[in-house]
Every structure is written in C-alpha cells, then in structure tokens.
Write a structure and sequence with these properties.
This protein has 2 helices and 13 strands; from the N terminus they run ββββαβββββββββα. By secondary structure, the chain is mainly beta. The chain has a single domain, classed as Sandwich (Jelly Rolls), CATH 2.60.120.10. Strands 1-2-10-7-12-5 form a 6-stranded antiparallel sheet, with no helix packed on it. Strands 9-8-11-6-13 form a 5-stranded antiparallel sheet, with no helix packed on it. A two-stranded antiparallel sheet has the order 3-4. β3 and β4 form a beta hairpin. The longest helix has 6 residues.
Length: about 180
C-alpha cells in the first residue's frame, strides 16, 4: 500500500496485489496500514453506486460540519476520473483540485478527507463505485456545488457530454454555497 499526494491531505492508495494462476488477491482496506499513512479514522458505512451511461457526473458533493465525511473511494467495475476539491476557507490550496483515474483494473483508491468536495465522471458505461465514509448521512447537511464551477476550474475529459441528476444540474456555484469548512 502506498500513497501519493498532489493536495497534501488527499491520498492515492495503491494496494499490493498478489496474483497467481487462480487470479489475484488484495486488501482493499487495512486499518493498521491506513493509520501508518496518517489516516486514522473509523469508517462506519460502505456505499455502492452504479452509473450506467458514459460521462455520468456525480458531484461535487460533501456534507457540512458537524456531519462532514472522509471517504475512501474505489471503482470496482469500469473506469472513472475521480476528483477531490479543497473547500476549506483559509487553506493554502482552497478551491484547488486533483484527479486520478480509478478502475477495476488498476485497483487504486482515493482518500478524500473532511473539508473536501468529491466528484467523479464515468469514462465508460456501467461503472460501479464503492466508498467508505466515517460519518453518517445527514440530509440537512448534504451540499452540492456545480461540477463546472469556473472558480474551481476542473479539467474534464475532452468531448464530455455530462449526464447529471436534477440535484447536481441545479447545484449552486461555490460562491453561493454555504460550505462551513475552515482551516
């Protein structure tokens, strides 16, 4: 298990995969190893989504304090481009983002801490994404920001024709969002 970081708090996790003539095996989560990477939290829920059309966009999503969530995201079928956006006002990296391709083939995972927004786009049809969270869902605290907010400036795949939920299509821009994260 290793990590890389374009944003200091966001980690790309690359598990050790053991393969033989039967197939492969890897630990998708090991608390002791995660703690060794400085990621000491208790995940309390696993979520699983299926996005059928190519270019489905889910996000930018987060939950405000006191229900903010850290996430450990992986793609178990297909390929996605996964993004984390720093939403912590006062941070040196405020509104900066990073992206990594997650796929069933590369088995990479993205750790997104509290204070960051999360969004992904599917790069092919029938993508399944699973993620762990360390806080309960709170409808009163869930928030969305427009995926194409120019103040954030995410670079999306060329030729993308996004498929959005009604909620994401009507999300506010970050300037109008009541995000309560600070450093």
């Amino acid at each position: 298990m290793s990590s890389g970081n374009a944003l200091p708090c966001v980690k790309i996790i690359e598990p050790c995969v053991f393969g033989d003539n039967r197939g492969w095996f890897f630990e998708s989560y090991n608390r002791k190893k995660m703690t060794g990477l400085g990621l000491d939290m208790e995940f309390i829920q696993d979520n699983h989504s299926l996005s059928v059309p190519k270019h489905t966009v889910r996000g930018i999503h987060f939950q405000n304090n006191p229900y903010a969530q850290s996430k450990l995201v992986r793609c178990t079928r297909g390929r996605i481009m996964d993004y984390a956006v720093d939403l912590r006002k006062g941070s040196e990296t405020y509104l900066q983002w990073m992206a990594v391709e997650l796929s069933a083939e590369n088995k990479k995972q993205l750790f997104i801490p509290k204070g960051f927004g999360h969004v992904f786009v599917t790069l092919e049809e029938n993508c399944e994404v699973q993620y762990k969270v360390d806080n309960i869902y709170s409808k009163a605290n869930e928030r969305s920001i427009r995926y194409d907010d120019p103040d954030i400036g995410i670079e999306w795949p060329e030729g993308m024709n996004p498929i959005l939920s009604e909620k994401d299509a009507n999300a506010p821009y970050v300037a109008a969002c009541d995000c309560n994260f600070t450093v």
